[in-house]
């Protein structure tokens, strides 16, 4: 039975490893980290911002990537992993609940610019708690 | 022609007034005229304060619950937002248990093509079938007794930005359907399907060449110039010009005409589509049998503000200037309420029902708005300030109005929001948004963001109003007991005296209301009111953090409504109220 779980099958493509997924049996599936060839600097982020608009990403994820019909990309939370490689995969191949696959019309270089833009956005420190003033006191 | 002198205007009651209401609710707008008027009389202003919840059911779905249930015989049918589950409840048994539920296969990729939450506006019953649309571009017919799928037809293509949350309409043997996608650069259309088989019998586009619009200039009442659907656009911009059909449809069997509104032209950046952009933001009258365009009228030519005209066209008969007129009444997103002759499309009355800054009025002779050109938008015009209404509309088409032949009044939710509008060039990439504008909102004059109003469509004036802190986004139902019902975004379901607007009763239903209430007679002979709770739609996008199901999507509250999430969060519940 364990033969079915053999990890040495060379037909398995190299893919992104998701450190925030649970690995069955404690063993990570084969795959590596796709490295971002760009640095997350202001020039790449500014270029990425333009691509983010030009590719209509803001139509779903909102201006400033704050979230619209698609999720916020600046809340520090990720459905499918938040590493550079996971973001690249999400853009290149799409995701099943509505994220189109852009790999056919965007070059890897343009996708990395968008990744640089997203990674450059500040993540708010206090989003988990929303509080409305009501004047109550601690018990 | 000019509007008849107001003193000679009187309402004559014809539509929606069957003396004996059969107690059912078999189509979205209650009847062909879309009056959402129930002839049931047990609930009155006197006893409405004693209304109580008699039943509720979680749909298990969190998306925005627009539209309305159906009641056919002793069964209530409920369609959820995506994944578009159809429930059939047995009203003859205690607790209204399910007879069956139908769970269609719906492509989840459509979630990324729906502009504004994965909503569904409901089903229609005809000829033993429950017919409704799935978000991913399919229409299905389900046997009303067994729940078995009878046919399933692909009508739209999500790869082109088309989704299908609208409620189909049945006129005779035709099922009429249309797409959403005004924000995705679709080429808008309506289709007529055979009710028996689901086969697509005709497709009529809302712009483009006459041959594709099924228009015959010079014949009948159609006054459009030849190929006006091309000549009022630059180049081939009509091919991606939007003009969706996501609202409500009505039907006059005597005239054999269906009436529906078309949505905004795309993109929002007007400079990419010079011209009047016909027939976007229009009302179209077509033959249901073959789709022929019989007449059209454009409410907002060359739309600069996303003023879709998908709101309901309510069919009533009026005496105007001493002469009986068959009219339709329409509350447009642009803030004007229109009364048109539904035989010819002639404009009779157009008055603002909401705070309007984009136009000074409507020229009654030409039918064209008198623009305030400082409010015209476009990429070269920068950030245009102080446009009212906002693109939520003076009233949302998602919030269908009601009409009582007893009071002669129309009842409608309204929004009191204004916006700034900063347009930018945008490129169409099929299957992705095609918008090109940023449009933040602020509350309109007075600070309240919504009001539920009673409107006299003959005189073009508000009769009474109930101001609400948040935009009012629910539909309404009015009854022969002279009680009108609506819901609020912060989760109240309310009853008011239809004559005076006096508030009679309210109940906190667990989530904001964007659905449309109905009234029906149960198998026990009693009158009931049903409504969905379940905030969503645009408010899924706009109100910030009203969702809690996704740890990977945390947003701050909206700056124009910072405390809406204090009062409500997502969650679909069907409620039934009775005495």
How would you describe this protein?
The complex is a heterodimer of chains A (139) and B (579). By secondary structure, chain A is an all-alpha fold. Chain A has a domain at 79-123. Chain A has helices at 42-54, 57-61, 84-93, 108-120. In chain A, helix 3 (84-93) crosses helix 4. Chain A is globular. Chain A starts with 41 loop residues before the first helix and ends in a 19-residue tail after the last helix. Residues 1-7 of chain A have low confidence and may be disordered. The model of chain B is unreliable at 1-18 (pLDDT under 50). In chain B, a hairpin with a 7-residue loop joins strand 6 and strand 7 (98-102). Chain B has one domain (6-578): Quinoprotein alcohol dehydrogenase-like superfamily (Methanol Dehydrogenase, Chain A). Helix content of chain B is 2%, strand content 35%. Chain B is mostly beta strands and 579 residues long. A 5-stranded antiparallel beta sheet of chain B has the order 1-20-21-22-23, with no helix packed on it. Chain B has a 5-stranded mixed beta sheet with strand order 2-34-35-36-37, with no helix packed on it. In chain B, strands 3-40-39-38 form a 4-stranded antiparallel beta sheet, with no helix packed on it. The chains are: A mainly alpha (139), B mainly beta (579). Chain A binds chain B through residues 53-56, 58-60, 63, 66-72, 75, 77-79, 96-100, 105, 124, 127-128, 130, 132, and chain B through 108-117, 183, 424, 426-427, 429, 431-435, 438, 540-541, 545, 550-557, 563, 565-566.
Shape of chain A: globular
Mean pLDDT of chain B: 95
- Strand runs of chain B, count: 40
Q: State the largest interface.
A: A-B, 30 and 35 residues
Rg of chain B over CA atoms, rounded to whole Å, is 22 Å
Give the helices and strands of chain A as they follow along the chain. HHHH
Helix content of chain A: 25-40%
C-alpha termini separation of chain B: 49 Å
- What is the total domain count of chain B? 1
Q: Structural class of chain B, please?
A: mainly beta
